[in-house]
Task: inverse folding
């Protein structure tokens, strides 16, 4: 099976967001043409994030996860995910849902038009109630 898309999501102490993140990513994946994988990178979380990632992996073969030994920071976690991504196109987004997964199809459409890099910039960031990646 060749992969069209890899969704790379670094996270740190996001146990409260993981179920909703997965629900929304799954919805996006089902709307895309082509095979998609989700790579979740636990950046040394101290909460139950890693346990939830393991459960998701067991439930859905499209989900894989990496567990870093300690908190190395957002950029290292993203790099780790990029190193494991197998898709033709890679989408990186934060686990705090400040980056709406529902924009992924629009970004993919831009990529299909020939753009090599598509970058979304939010006009306003909501206040975060928990940890962030």
Result:
């Amino acid at each position: 099976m060749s992969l069209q898309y890899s969704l790379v999501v670094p996270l740190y102490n996001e146990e409260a967001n993981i179920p909703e993140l997965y629900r929304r990513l799954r919805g996006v994946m089902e709307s895309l043409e082509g095979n998609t994988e989700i790579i979740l990178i636990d950046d040394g979380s101290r909460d139950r994030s890693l346990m939830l990632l393991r459960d998701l992996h067991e439930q859905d073969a499209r989900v894989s996860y990496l567990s870093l030994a300690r908190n190395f920071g957002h950029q290292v976690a993203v790099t780790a995910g990029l190193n494991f991504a197998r898709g033709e196109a890679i989408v990186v987004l934060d686990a705090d849902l400040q980056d709406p997964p529902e924009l992924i199809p629009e970004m993919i459409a831009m990529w299909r038009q020939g753009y090599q890099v598509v970058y979304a910039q939010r006009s306003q960031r909501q206040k975060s109630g928990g940890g962030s990646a």
Notes: The longest strand covers residues 5-11. The mean pLDDT is 92. Strands lie at 5-11, 36-42, 63-67, 89-92. DSSP finds four helices and four strands in the chain.
